[in-house]
Amino acid sequence: MTSSSGFSTQNPLHPLLYLALLLPLAYILRKPLLRLVTPRGIPDVPAFPNPSPLLGDLPMITKVIKETGSFSAFFDKAARELGPIAQVRMSYLMTLVILSDIQETEAVFSSKPTTWDRSKDTISLFRTVIPRGQLSFRTDSTFKHHRRLMGPAMTSKYLSSTTPKAAQAASELVELFMAKAKIAGDRGFQAEEDLNNATLDAICGMAFGTNWRLLKSRQEQIRRMPSVPTGSHGEAEFKLHKVPLAESLDYLFESIPMKSPVPTVSHFISRLNPAYHKHHRRLHTFLGKTISQARAKAQQMGADAAVELADNTLDMMVARELRGDDFMPDEDMRDELVVYLLAGTETSATTLAWWVKYMTNHPEIQRKLRAHLLDRLPQLLDRAPTFDDLTTTNVPYLDAVIHETLPMEDTMVLGRRIPKGTVLLGITATGWEDASTPVYAGDSADDEDTIARSQRLQGVRTDKTARKYGFWEAGTGRKFMPERWIDAAGLFDPNAGPSLPFSTGQRACFGKNLAMLELRVFVTQLNLAIFFAPVTEDQNSFVNYETVTNHPRQSIIRPVSWDSSMASATATATATATASASAAAASMPDHGA
Ligand code: HEM
Question: Does residue 515's CB lie within 6 angstroms of at least one atom of ligand 1?
């Protein structure tokens, strides 16, 4: 008779004998076994079994995040306490290496994709919802083909022809803000949802020529609202609904299992819900039809005219395809349009949400920016800005204000060998003062922290002159100071300090040029039309929360026109806002989006 475990019940010593045989074997194999379960990390900092060189593990990270509400605060701590290269155990089998020096980050991410590539985890996340979009590919031949075909969309020629789409969304946003302000009175209201709708309208226009009338729909809803209730911070609460296509897009994005350790399984579960299929079908049917119409329009115009007149990315792709330049299957084209909507909406909207907050807290910068724009481009009082109006050379202070709002990124691999397969994290919005302000021989430093931090950078870069990027002055890293981007000649200097908001190298942001254009258009039109008046302290928190980007929990604004007494009451407005800005900055975990 035999038990289900396979051991003979007639010989009770048998399992013990079995164990006795296994023990010496386990002893002999202990080292390779240990290596197998050891999290990957930097070999000269033993990650296992001695965890002391690690900054922390998952429970510790969770604690910091609970206390501060921010992942970035944890990365900041890593940069400050361990220097520019740190490792953190996320689970028994996974260690993250965190880099925080801009120059090294650039060197690493610009190296060949055979050395570094987008991580498998990131790819498997996006592959669930957009399997044929560039976000879901390794840097392989398909990725390069997609980039080749879409690349011209980021050239001045095409960006110039798409600028009116962004300008239209920006002017509709100004109208919406002013209409809401009329109803809200002096209560203020949350801006982020409107900004999200505005950037989606702009990106739809730039991606396939027409938008979903999200801002128009919001304006129409508001017109039917004589009054709105007051929320818990004294703000006016507008409850507006989305148009169906935007609702479907949100649903699909939310079903990307960002926080799941097993994205494919989580996505399989999401797909069991019939609502998933309804939203998926609605969006894909719309995009399929849009692609067919673009193809038919190009056929009718003829290849050369279609290439010449294309004023959005889809028209440009189908026209070039017709001319015989290259070809992309419908399924890939459709997913690339979804990538535009995904990668181009929330990122720009959160940047603008931080920007309106900074403006609310810095009336003097709003005034300076407006004076600068009117001095350089007085014609903008009569018409919308064009691509050529908004170049860096024309309006350097505009770029300085935008760069001061964008998320900052520091990163590095400082002389350490990183094993194959290690997950390397380039961090946004962290360490850009703390980890990258070394003290050089000859510099004076009187506080122990700065000296200790600097010593961690020893041997990595001691020669100030060999550095491409500057450092922010000690103690100013987290301040909002657009002036620091302007050089002695009054020009914008993109390397003034550590900042890689769009990442770098082969997998840097594809839409950087478009995003910068969109931000220039929005910031210009909003600044020229609106003064963001101070809000109450209760409405001015800088507490943030993180999804794909880092959002302000409160983006409450009080728009008034520049003719109003509020905008001209310089002294009072400045004093109130500066006081509330300093109070808010004290609790501010992050500088940017
Ligand atoms: C303020 C706005 C934006 C910021 C801060 C931003 C930032 C970034 C960053 C940091 C990455 C790299 C992500 C990674 O390494 O995993 C990225 C990737 C990407 N971004 Fe942006 N982005 C912005 C706007 C846009 C816009 C408007 C578009 C639309 C065309 C866009 C399209 C993309 C695409 C397609 C990728 C993936 C590139 C690849 O897979 O190699 N982004 N973006």
Answer: yes
